[in-house]
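New to this. Explain the following:
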Amino acid sequence: MIPLLLQRIISGVGGNPPMAKEDAARRILTADPFDLVLHMEQLWDVSKPWGAIPAAGPGRRAFYGIGEFASYVPTDLPAWDHLGYSYVLENTRIVQILRRVVREYRSGEGLGLPSIETQRWLDVTEALLFGAANPVPSWLSTSVIRQDPEAVRRNAYWRFFGLDLAFGTDDNRPPVYDKATATNTGFVRLLEELLFELWQAMTNVRNIAGANASDDDRIFRIAEELGYILRSRRQKSTLKREELAAATVLGWAELTVAINSSLVSDLSATATNPATRLQLIGERVGLAAHSKSAAFFSMAADLSVLLYTIEAGVVSGPEFAWVLYMEQLPPGKVGKPIGAESRRVITEWAAATGKDLKVRAKAVETTSRPRVVAAA
C-alpha cells in the first residue's frame, strides 16, 4: 500500500500536483495515522473482497472522503503489494529493529532526543505497526484472540509459501504462532524451477547462433502449477485482509529507510541505500539486520509483480510464456512483458539464498490442474 501511495503522490494522480520523491515520502512519514488507516480501508473497499457485498458500511465509508489521501485511491487493481513483497522485506528483520527503536525512544533517552518529525514518526509507527490507539484495529488483523501482529503475518507466510522467517523473536526465542496444516510447501521448489527456466529463456533471447534451450511449454506448466497453489490460498478472499495489513506494515517500514528520513538522521544512520541504513539502525539498538538485506530490499517490488502476474493467469498457454521473460514487447504481440522484473528476482533470490538458479537442480514434476480463477 505505502509504495503505491508514494508513486501516486509523486505522479500527481487524481488531479493533484506532482511531488518530488523525498517530499512525498516525508508527507507520508509525518501523516496522521488515522488518515493512513482511512486510505488503507478505502483500498480494501475498492478491491471488493466479497464481490457485490460492500466491504464497509455507510458509517465507515462516510469517513473516506475526509482523509488526507482520499484523492489518491486507485481505480485499478491490485491496490497493494503481494504477500511475497512483505515476506522478503520482513526477512531483513526491519520490523523487529523498528520495534526496538520505538521502545528505546519511549522508555528513555538512550538514543538521544528525537526531533519533532521523528516524534511524529513514533506516533504513527506505534499506531500502524503495533496497534497503539488504532481507530480501526481490524485492519491489523489482531484482536484478543490474535494479539501479536507478527505472529499473524508468520501464519500467513506459512500458509502461502510454506516458509517461516529466517529468525525467531527479537529476543531470539523460537517464534510461537498458529501453524496451519493447509500450506503451500511446494512453493519454493516450483518458484526456483520457474526462475531457472526463465533464465534459460532470457539467455536464448540474445542467442543468435547457438542452440535454443528455452522451453515455453515448461514455463507455462510451472507457472500454471504455481498460480494454482497460490490461488488455492485465496479462495473466498481468504488471507486478503492479512495480506493488506502486511503490505502496509512492511511498506511503512521500507519507506522509513528508503530515504535519509528524520529517524535515520537522528540515529546517525545516513547512508546511500536502505540496507546500510537498516544495518546502522540495528547496531544502535543491538539487533543485527539480516546479512542479505540488500538482496531482500532489491527484489521485493519485482517479486510482487512476478507473483501477481502468475496468479492472474496471464500465462494461460505456452504462447504467452514470453510475458515472463521478455523485456520488450515482441513484434505482433499484445501485453506487458515483465522480463526485467523476473531478471531482478532471479539475481536477488540467488544472492539471498546462495542457490545458483542458472544451473538446473533436480527437475520438479508438474501436474495438470484445473484452471481456478481467484475470487474477487
Notes: The mean pLDDT is 90. Residues 81-376 form one domain. The two ends are 18 Å apart (CA to CA).
